[in-house]
From TrEMBL:
GO molecular function, one term: oxidoreductase activity
SUPFAM superfamilies in the record: FMN-dependent nitroreductase-like
Stretches assigned to the Nitroreductase domain: 14-176
Protein name as annotated: Nitroreductase
């Protein structure tokens, strides 16, 4: 398949990637999704299992419904001390205008076949490939992990055409950023040991 032109090298994309939470209304070109999926399926996979499957949602009504359902679930859930969401996040949830998909026009679900070895790990590797490819194309992405519980409800999976052997692992929004993402810093790598021969 044809691969779209990219704006940066792989290493540049790794350094430039940011979680984007503000999107323009510009729609993705029809070649974009196939190119992103092609990048995703080139990820390493245990025992050649290729356990991934994808759902692409670009219907604004469905995205709004899923967002509203997820917000309700998140507000009524119980959390451990370690999982307790921030006050800011709860304030967003009670805002009727807040959309957990940040009004992005595209949501890609990477689903894992749970019958296969290391399927979830493989799908996260596929997610990183997709995200870096999107960054190189000038697109923004964000993993919406808080949507996973609602997306894995049996009735929601049925509505989205996801069969029972698959679990939604990585919900990723994709679109054109409405502004330039701010570069963030990271801590230095924590190396627990560096074992070499004498």
């Amino acid at each position: 398949m044809a691969v779209l032109e990219v704006e940066m090298s792989l290493y540049e994309a790794i350094l430039a990637r940011r979680s984007v939470r503000s999107y323009s209304t510009q729609k993705l070109d029809k070649e974009t999704i196939p190119s992103l999926l092609e990048a995703a399926i080139r990820a390493p996979t245990a025992m050649h299992g290729e356990p991934w499957a994808f759902v692409i949602i670009q219907d604004k009504k469905i995205l709004k419904e899923l967002s509203d359902q997820a917000k309700t679930m998140l507000m009524t859930s119980t959390y451990s001390d370690q999982q307790q969401p921030s006050v800011k996040f709860f304030e967003q949830l009670i805002n009727q205008d807040f959309n957990i998909f940040y009004n992005a026009g595209t949501l890609i679900l990477i689903c894992s076949n749970t019958n296969l070895t290391a399927s979830e790990a493989d799908c996260w590797l596929a997610a990183e490939n997709l995200i870096l490819a999107a960054c190189a194309m000038g697109l923004g992405t964000c993993i919406i992990g808080c949507a996973s519980p609602i997306l894995n409800l049996a009735e929601v999976k049925t509505k989205l055409g996801i069969s029972s052997e698959f679990t939604v692992v990585a919900p990723i929004i994709v679109g054109y950023p409405s502004d330039t993402p701010v570069r963030s810093s990271r801590k230095h790598p924590r190396v627990l040991a560096n074992i070499q021969t004498n």
